[in-house]
Amino acid sequence: MENPIIELHGLTKYYGTVKAVDNLSLKIGKGEIFGLLGPNGAGKTTTILMMLGLAEPSEGQAMVCGINATRHPIDVRRKVGYLPDSAGFYDNMSALDNLMYIGRLNGIPEKEIVSRARSTMEMVGLGGEMHKKAGAYSRGMKQRLGLADLLIRKPAVMILDEPTLGIDPSGIRDFLHLIRQLSRQEELTVILSSHHLHQMQQICDRVGIFVEGRLLAEGNMETLSRSLFGKDSFAVEITVREPLPAAEQLEQQLLQLNGVTGVGIDAATVALSCHTDITPDIVRLFVQNGLNVTGVHKKEYGLDEIYHRFFENNVKKESFQWQVH
Amino acid sequence: MAGSLAYFNNFLSKQPALSSFGVMVRKEVGDHIRSWRFIVMLLLILFTFAGTMYVSLSNLGQVARNFNDPDHDFIYLKLLTTSDNSLPTFHIFISFLGPLLGIALGFDAINAEKNNGTLVRLLAQPVYRDSLLLAKCYAALLIVGTLFLSLVLLMIGAGLILTGVPMEATELYRILTFVVLSVLYVGFWLSLSICLSVAFRHAATSAITAIGIWLFFTVFYQIIVNMIVRAILPDPASLQAEQVIAYNNLLLSFLRVAPSQLYTDAATTLLMPSVRSLGPLTMEQMAGAIPTPLPFKESLMIVWPQVTGLVAASTVCFAGAYYMFMRREIRT
C-alpha cells in the first residue's frame, strides 16, 4: 500500500497478565473505510484507544498521519476524530451548544463557529432539531450529533466505535449510508468497529477480523469469505412438503450436479453445500423429480460461522503441530 | 489620531480564539451558575450574610462607643465581627458553609462526566488532560471569589451609606485579605472534593465521603482531641506554668490540623487588629504591651502559618487528583 495513513507495528497491550491486543500490525490507506470486526472483548476498543494516544501500548507503536500516537497524542487528536460507543453529551445544553463547545476546543475561530456548527448540523440531518436540549435526543439522533461532532473538526481520519449499537434497522442503514457518502465526498479515512458482519459488509472497503486480541484475517469481503470457506462457500437448504420417498436416489442425482460438494438429507429438508451458486439448477432438479418445494433458503455466513470456522482452523493447526513434534 | 483609533478598532475586532483552557473555564462557569445546587448555596450564603449584617448593624453604635475595645475605631471590621450572641458572625458562618460550597461545586467534577460518557469524548479532543482538571478548579474558584468579593463590597457600600464614616486603608487591606483567605479555604474543600471525584466512580460516594470528612473535622475532631488529651495529660495542678503552656501549645497544634480551625484563627486575627497571638502568652511576653491594634503587616505575619497550611493542604489534594487522573485510562 502506498503511503498508508495509519500504520500499526507490533502493537501489544497487557492488562495485568491478560493480553488485550497481541502483536497487531496493520496498514490502512487514505480514503479507505476499514471495519474492525470482532466479538466483545476482542481488543477493538483498546486498539482504537492506542491509535489516539488515550492508552499506552505495552509494546509496538501506532503511527497515525505519520505521527507517533503515544508520544504526540495532542497532534494526533488534532487530525483524528473519535466517536466512542455510548458517547455522551451535556444534557442541559442544546445540541448546537454542545457542538460549538467541541468546535471551540478545537480552536475554530469565534467568527466562523456558529455558521460552521449550523452547516454541520444540516449535513447530518439534524437541522430542524439543533436547538433542542441534547438530553431530549433519541439514541439515533445522539449518534448523528456525535458524527457532527467529528465533522465540525474536519478530521483526516474518523474512528467510530460501535456506531450502530442500539439504533433501529432503518436508522442504521441511513447512518451507514451517511458515513459512506461523507467519506467519499471528503476523502475521509473511516475506521468502524462492530460485531455485525452484515453492517460492515454494506459499507466497508476492507475488514479486519479480531479474535482475542489478534488480527486473524484482513481483506475485502469476497477474499475474506473465499479464504474462510474455501470450496464450500455456498450453502442451500431446501424444504419439501412431504417426506422424501427415495432419499438415496435423490442424493446421487444431486451429487452429480456440477459444483455440489456435500448433501445431507433429513426427512423433508435437504442441505447442500457447493462452491458456486447453483441454486436454480438444484431447484429445477427437485421440480423435475416431482417434489413439492415449499422453501429454498440460501444460507449466508454470519460472524458466528466465521468465528467458529476460525477456532476450528486454529485447533486443527495446533493439533497438527502436535503430531509433527 | 485616526491612525491610533484604527489601531484600536483593529485590536478590538481581532478576537483571538480562546485557548482550550479558556473555553473549558467558560463552559464550567456557565454550568455552575445555572445549576440548582449553586443557586441553593448562593441563597444560603446570602441569607446568612444579610442576617449577620442586620445583627452587627443594630449593635454597631454600642460597639463603636466602647472605648475599652482597642478596635472600636474600625467600623467596617466591626461590621464583620460584631454579634449580640443571637447569631454567629459572618466568618464563623463561612467556616462551616464554605466547605459545603466547595464540596457542592466539586464533588462530581470528574465522575459525572465519566458516567455521562462526555469525558472520553472530551479527552479525544486535542486538549491536555490537566487543563480539564485546572479548568474545573479555576472556574469554581472564580465563582466563589466573585461571590465573596461582591458580598464584602456590598457590605462596605452599605456601611458607607449608613454610617458615613470613611474607610481606612488598613481596613480595606484586611477585608480584601479576608476575602482571599475565604477563597483559599473554600479552595481547599474544592480540591479535596475534586480529588474524591477522581477517586470514586459514583458522584454520590464522593459527595458522602467529602461531607463525612467535613463533619469529622467540624464536629468530632475537637471532641476526640480533647478526650485523648484529657486521658493522657497529667493533672494541671501538679504542673509548672511553663509545662501547662507547652501542653496547651501542643493541644492547639493538634487542633490546627482541622482546616476550619486554621481558617477561624486566621480570619479572627485579620478582622480583629488587637489579636496579637493565637496561642497562650506568658506574663513576661505581655509585660509592657499597650493594648493597641496591630498594623496590618504584623497581623499578616501572625496568620502566615495558617495561610501556608491551607495552601499546602489544597495543593496536596489537587496533586492527588492530578496524580490519579493524568495516567488513568479512560474508557466508557
UniProtKB/TrEMBL annotation, chain A:
For this protein, the record's PROSITE patterns field holds: ABC_TRANSPORTER_2
Can you tell me which residues the record assigns to a coiled coil? none
What InterPro entries does the annotation carry?
A: AAA+_ATPase, ABC_transporter-like_ATP-bd, P-loop_NTPase
Gene3D superfamilies membership: P-loop containing nucleotide triphosphate hydrolases
Keyword annotations: ATP-binding, Nucleotide-binding, Transport
- Start and end residues of each ABC transporter domain: 6-237
Pfam families to which the protein is assigned, alphabetical = ABC_tran
Show the GO MF annotations: ATP binding; ATP hydrolysis activity
Source organism's superkingdom? Bacteria
What's the family?
Belongs to the ABC transporter superfamily.
Protein name, entry field: ABC-2 type transport system ATP-binding protein
**Organism of origin:** Chitinophaga polysaccharea
From TrEMBL, chain B:
Q: Name one GO molecular function term.
A: ABC-type transporter activity
> Pfam families annotated for this entry?
ABC2_membrane_2
Q: Does the keyword Transmembrane helix apply?
A: yes
Source species, domain of life: Bacteria
Give the record's keywords alphabetically: Membrane, Transmembrane, Transmembrane helix
Answer yes or no on keyword Transmembrane.
yes
List all membrane-crossing ranges. 36-57, 90-112, 133-163, 175-200, 207-229, 302-325
Record PANTHER family: ABC TRANSPORTER PERMEASE, ABC-2 TYPE TRANSPORT SYSTEM PERMEASE PROTEIN
| Name under which the protein is recorded | ABC-2 type transport system permease protein
**What taxonomic ancestry is recorded?**
Bacteria, Pseudomonadati, Bacteroidota, Chitinophagia, Chitinophagales
